[in-house]
């Protein structure tokens, strides 16, 4: 009997609402100018970059890591995003309300050592942010804020994936139709690397992440990683979780109360762009660094904002990994375009700096790629203050990193066409919803790959914006990006037929070919899909570090 892999396509920039039995009352209207003035009143680089608390996902027994169980809750509390901003009400992860943080604690797991986590919901009866009942969402009958946790980039059994339909309220008082267990098991069988966990409930993702339900998850294997010689230890190996936010003058997190087309969606808007850039929960922080190498694991947790990152002192990024995997060899990049939900693992050598300070800045238009240019606020990210090293730097960047299975496009057993199409309001031209191949998230699955196989997906973006494509329980790599010719004709046909082959895609996908950046030629779980292009991705439904099947599918299919 063939096991089927259930895929979830996550397009964070289009997920829309929060939950509760009714939306919170709207405050007085606020203008973009007012939000900019609030953000502009905050002095940059006065708060030190926080080191998020760490939770070990294993215990040491007889000198070896062993499995454990953790209980992590979701709480409402106050959080200071800036020295001069009143504390904000947030939803955050932690082992207790007192220790919960924005972002949540970094979970450090050991490769090959399973971890069980019971996720507890202690959130209040009503959400702190607005939501829109006209968008499909989890609305409990008796109130409460539905949540469910997804480990982004994890290879784990479907019942531990955090399906959007597996939501639950406080005390498991109400549960969604796909809910099955309060405890998730993460095998941690995949390659060492950086992941992140976040809320994933139906229709809540945007609001719940905006409120603070996110955190980092790092898988380590000292036997494999130590010989590489990369910077290590809490001081020199840092996670940077980027998130844009706007604030009211009282410190409350701003989220729109009026929709882009109020007569269709009273509250929903397709994108959220904040005026302030936070890193690890602080607006425009600083980090004191020594003249030596540092490793930064950069995670973009924003709703829709892309970051095109660079350092003002001209130092390059040496990219050693992306998403949950290493590259086969380091790649030097002067700038780094990071899409929503994407991660990059980089090394910066501050010993080569000609200055004593360097700003990390952002030049990505919003929406990307043809929106507004960043301003003096959202064009800044954080600052590094550089001082002499107190000890010799013994770290290095090796010429060779880790090898994984070959792309091997010729091994594909199936070629699929995945088309993103934005539906618009005839009166205003504004978007009302986005479907994939004309299907809603709630519709039955049409794409059912087999575990252990390789497929080729031709992903076509007929929307105006770049979109991050994320697949659950799959690893993939972009191999080609080809422009569309006579796009309007193809779009018109797709609006009628929703079938790329019948719409003669081979005649349209013959435009300019754009090279995939060298530092993105690795096994990823997020790939940027450019507007007006067809991006070819090779998808593997097995462990790319070993070529072996997912261990839980072996258990499931073995008599």
TrEMBL record:
GO molecular function: copper ion binding; oxidoreductase activity
Subcellular location: Endoplasmic reticulum membrane
Membrane topology category: Peripheral membrane protein
BP GO annotations: cellular response to phosphate starvation
Record-linked PANTHER family: MULTICOPPER OXIDASE LPR1-LIKE (PTHR48461:SF1)
Membership in a protein family: Belongs to the multicopper oxidase family.
Protein name: Plastocyanin-like domain-containing protein
Species annotation: Oryza rufipogon (Brownbeard rice)
